[in-house]
Amino acid sequence: MTQHIHCIVSDCHYYGQGNVCKANEILVATDKFGDNQPDQLDATMASQYNAEQAGTCMATCCKSYVPKGSDMTTQDGIKKMS
Fold first, then answer.
1. What residue segments make up the domains of the chain, in order of their start?
2. Pairing of strands 28-30, 20-21
């Protein structure tokens, strides 16, 4: 199955033309979880954590966000696909 992850956050390192996420994996988490974890914790470690209920769309976040042009592009182990 082919997945298409759409993203409208243009200042993310993984953002691609046409509003496409170019990360080879992403972690979507609850805001509560994301607020309490370091940036290095991302999709590559997802299997180590228990799933949580968010309750609403507004209580979720993409944990894979990395600022475009920053020195943080290699700290989480996620790769940018071409």
1. 26-62
2. unpaired
